[in-house]
Amino acid sequence: MATQGSYYVPEQSKLPLFASLGMFLTVFGAAGWINGSESGMTVFFAGALVLASVMWTWFSTVIKENLAGLNNDQLKRSYVWGMGWFIFSEVMFFAAFFGALFYLRQFAVPWLAGEGHSAMTNELLWKGFENEWPLLTTPEQVREGEAAARFIGAHEPMGWAGLPLINTIILLTSSFTVHFAHTALKNANRKMFNIWLGATVALGIAFLILQVEEYVHAYEELGLTLNAGVYGTTFFMLTGFHGAHVTLGTFMLLVMWLRGLKGHFKHDDAFGFEAASWYWHFVDVVWVGLFIFVYILGS
Fold first, then answer.
1. By CB neighbour count within 10 A (0-12 exposed, 13-18 middle, 19+ buried), where does 122 fall?
2. Which of 56, 97, 115, 234 has its CA 20 to 30 A from that of 74?
3. What global pTM score does this model have?
């Protein structure tokens, strides 16, 4: 429409192709790394380097375009819709894993134990297997004995007190600090914006450090690994993917903080920061769900 003004269309770029290549190498390398491939770790970090380089170049270009005044209101609305759909796709991503956890706890494990109309399943597959969650004794242990089992359950479940509770407090606090930063920016208080946003980045880094310590505790003291049956796989899939999202969100906020120190944002033009803050709030909400269903109800 003529009233919307001209719509800036950037020149053609090969960055999407390199981004796809980086994502492929990262996932392919991670799969090989988990399965013991000698080159898996190398491929993973090579893909991560390619992806990081693409994101750096791509986002730098977008920032320069915005500072040059090329982004009109219509284009900025498309950014809002794009970020909204991206967060929605992330909601569906985690919904699949939460759904898998619900299915296992409410249906699959009870059926294997012969509950409901599944007595024959228990008799034919794993006789003597009992329904419990977290599943510390895997069906294969019941069938073949612990020494011959491929999947040996954890010694004890991961409790909700201690590091998980501290991390919950940290993430919830970070939601407040990023909101305070947003409020300060709206009030054109750049000093407080930088202070609150810097505090949010520090809290994100603290969360990641404590999660590494939690994983070390799980592996070395609880026997909770990816091979610890379905309890181990669901625990690390949910918390691990969430940790990856926290890492990404922390990098996003770090970049926004560095941009804020350079004076890039205005009270009425700060979509980059707003998009990062939306993503951070989403990550916090997911963690609350994890803390309830994985830690509290799963211990």
1. buried
2. 56
3. 0.84
Under DSSP, is residue 5 helix (H, G, I), strand (E, B) or coil? coil
Distance between start and end Cα atoms, the chain:
58
> Mean pLDDT throughout 2-30?
81
Cα–Cα distance measured from residue 182 to residue 254, given in angstroms and rounded to the nearest whole number? 15
CB neighbours of 187 closer than 8 A, spacing ≥ 6? 267
* 134: preceding bond cis by omega (within 30 degrees): yes
Neighbours of 233 (CB within 10 A): 16
pLDDT one-digit tens code per residue, 223-249: 888 888 888 889 999 999 999 999 999
With a CB cutoff of 8 Å and minimum separation 6, the contacts of 196 are 177, 178, 180, 181, 184
Burial class of 24 by CB neighbour count within 10 A (0 to 12, 13 to 18, 19+): middle
| Domains defined along the chain, listed by start | 10-70 (1.10.287.70), 71-296 (1.20.120.80)
Residue 97 carries which DSSP code? H
Measured CA to CA, the distance from residue 10 to residue 17 in angstroms comes to 16
| DSSP state, residue 117 | T
